[in-house]
Amino acid sequence: MCSISRKMAAEFIGTFGLIFFGGGAAAMGYPLIDVALANGLAIMIAAYVFGDISGGVVNPAVTLGGAIAGKIGWKDAGLYMVAQVGGGIAAGYVLLVVLGGSTGHLGATTINTSLVSVSGGFILEALGTFFLTTTALYTAMSGRTGNAAPLAIGFTLVMAVTFMGPLTGASLNPARTLGPAVAGVYFPHIWVYLVATPVGGLIAGLLYNFMQEHKAVS
After folding, report:
1. CB distance 189 to 176 below 8 Å
2. How far apart (Å, rounded) are the C-alpha atoms in residues 109 and 182?
3. Total domain count for the chain?
4. Contact, 192 vs 110, CB < 8 A?
5. Is the pLDDT of residue 2 over 70?
6. How far is the CA of 27 from the CAs of 8, 31, 104, in angstroms?
7. Mean per-residue pLDDT for 143-159?
8. What sections of the protein cross the membrane (predicted)?
9. In this structure, what DSSP letter does residue 78 have?
10. 109: left (phi over 0), alpha (psi -120 to 50) or beta
11. Which of 22, 38, 138, 211 has the most beta carbons within 10 angstroms of its beta carbon?
12. Could you tell me if residue 58 is left (phi over 0), alpha (psi between -120 and 50 degrees) or otherwise beta?
């Protein structure tokens, strides 16, 4: 099996786990802190398990930020995204089978318009993804914090879900949104997530480059 195949398999499995456990916890209507921990622990474990293979990125928006920052090659980034979206959709369909129907819309992320506007939801998803991508760039992708990097990434997601969960579902990840949405045929506000999250990753990658250039000049 070639190197890129191993990387794609790692990203597929890691993303599957994130959507299966994170989305599953949301679908079951568990308390917010439980949902936040399920998501944070899933991404942390993916980073620990697959960090030396693909990085355990498990997020197309973070992958985009990593490619812009020069931490992931563009060819690999494109293939990662294919594997990540595939893993998310596969997890959505497994949830559909396991839960015996579209329980809780399979944990699909939607904007709670009784608490926040659609534009507000867009801003939240972009900001959340920005901070998640920034954390990944300055820890795991830069090799600065060693074995603590997955903890930082996982707790960043826990923080985001704890605050944003009741407002937008705290996707911060196109694959997290697409998996349950496709399997459950449930698409309200989906464009927000598919646009806002890459925007957050894009800005994080650009800002990382700016900060690194500034540091090099200094």
Report:
1. no
2. 12
3. 1
4. no
5. no
6. 27, 11, 4
7. 93
8. 12-33, 45-67, 79-101, 121-141, 148-170, 190-210
9. H
10. beta
11. 22
12. left
The domain that holds 54 is classified in CATH as: 1.20.1080.10
Phi, psi of 108 (to 5 degrees): -60, 145
| Residues 38 and 175 sit within 8 Å (Cβ to Cβ) | no
User: Quick check: helix, strand or coil at residue 27?
Assistant: helix
Q: What is the 3-state secondary structure of 112-177?
A: CCCCCCHHHHHHHHHHHHHHHHHHHHHCHHHCCCHHHHHHHHHHHHHHHHHHHHHHHCCCCCHHHH
DSSP 56-71: ----HHHHHHHHHTTS
**3-state class (DSSP) for residue 204:** helix
* pLDDT, tens only, 72-98: 999 999 999 999 999 999 999 999 999
Domain region containing 159? 3-217
Rounded Cα gap, residues 68 and 17, in angstroms = 26
User: pLDDT-based confidence at 213, cuts 50/70/90?
Assistant: confident
**Residue pLDDT, tens place only, 195-209:** 999 999 999 999 999
Mean pLDDT of the chain: 95
The torsion of the CA quartet 183, 188, 191, 194, rounded to 10 degrees, works out to -40
Q: State the amino acid at position 207 in one-letter form.
A: L
At 214 the pLDDT is 65
**54 contacts: CB under 8 Å, gap ≥ 6:** 6, 7, 8, 10, 11, 14, 80
